[in-house]
Amino acid sequence: MGVSHISNRSDQPSGRWSRRGVLTVLGAAPAAVLTGCSGSADATQDAGATASVKSAATKKPVVTVTPADGTKKAAFTSPVEVAVTDGTLASVEVSGNDGATLEGTFNDTKTTWTSKKNPYSGTKYTVTAKVRGAGTRTATFTTRSPGETFVGYFTPEAGSTSGVGMPVSINFTHAVSDKAAVQKAITVTAEPAVEVVGHWFSDTRLDFRPETYWAAGTTVTLGLRLKDVEGADGVYGVQSKDVTFHIGREQISTVDLATKEMVVQRDGATYATYPVSGGDADHTTWSGIMVISERFEETRMESSTVGLGDEYDIADVPHAQRLTTSGTFIHGNYWASASVFGSQNTSHGCVGLHDAKGADDSSVPGYRFYRSSMLGDVVIVKNSGEETVDPANGLNGWNLSWEEWKAGSAL
User: Fold this and answer.
1) Which residue, of 81, 146, 235, 335, has the fewest CB within 10 Å?
2) Are 111 and 83 in contact (CB under 8 A)?
3) Phi, psi (degrees; rounded to nearest 5) at 331
C-alpha cells in the first residue's frame, strides 16, 4: 500500500483595519494531515475533513474597539472596550494626548479588555492592541467636549494657614442635582488623620468639617475629581486637582454680652481679655459659634446693605472681621466713647471694641485683637438675647451637632 502525503504549508500572518474600524488579523495555516489507503468514498470523506480543519485554522482574529476607530465626537460617559474574536489579547494600552493612560482589566479568557474609568472629555486617545501570535494594531478616537459645565470655588485658599474653625467650603457655579456623584468625587483628608464629612447646605454649597475643631498644626488636603462628573442633567464638572492648606495655632474667643467682655483663649490658655459692646435691644447680636471668614484693616459699612435704611454710613471702620454673610462683624469702633465698652450694648448687631480712627494705634483693643486673629478663628457669642445663628449664615456649621451634620451628607 502507498501512503499519500499532503505537504506542510506555512503562511506569514498579516493583518489590516477594515474600513469600519474593526481590526482583522490573519491566522497561521493548518498543520499537515496524514491519510492511509482507502476507497474513493473514504478519500472524499478525508478531503472534506481536511478542508474543514483548514477553514477553522485560518479564521482571522477580529479586534473591535469601542468607541470605534476614527470617531471624532465619542461619548466620554462609558468605559473604553477592546474585544477580539477567534484570538486572545496579549496587551492593551490606551493613552491620551494629555499624557495620561487608562488602566483596564481583561476578562477570564482575555478576549475583552475594559477600562476601569471612563475616558476624559475633549481628549484624543490612541488604542494599541496586541493579539497573541498575530501582531499589533492601533486605533484612535476623540471624545467630545462637554456642553454646559460647572466648577467649585473653594475656601480656604490653597497654601493658606487658617484657624481651627475653618471648614472646607465649596460653592458650585451650577445647581447640583446628583449630590451623591459630586460628593463622591471630592475628598478632604487630614494629617493627623480624623474623620471628615461633607454637608450640603444647598444645591450649590457643600462644606466639610470634622466632629470637633481641627487640631492645631493639621494639614488638610482637598481632592477635586469633578472632571466629567455629571452634576445635573447634561452639566459636567471640569476640575481635577489637589489643594492643601494648614491649620495654625488654636484661638477661640468667647464674647459674653451679659458682662460685655471677650476672653481670648490661645492654645488653651487665656491670651487676652477685652471690654466689648454688642447689639442693643432692638438690634441683638446673633448667638452661637461663628468663624472669621473675611478680614479688613479698614472698610466701609452702610446700614442700607443690611436692611437698616440710612441709619449709618461709616467709610473707615477699622479692623473689621466678618462673622456672618448677613453682615455681622467684630470690629474696631472709634466713634463711641471709650466708656461704652464693657458697660453698654449699643451697636446695630456687631461686636465692637474700642479703637482709633485710621487703624494705626497699636495700643487700643481693636488693633490688638485684629493683629492676633486670622481667618478661621472661632468667635463664640453668648447671652446676646438672640437665637443661634443659622449654620449656613457664614462658615458657621459648628452650630450643628455631629449627627445633624452627618445627616446632611449625600453619601
Assistant:
1) 335
2) yes
3) -150, 165
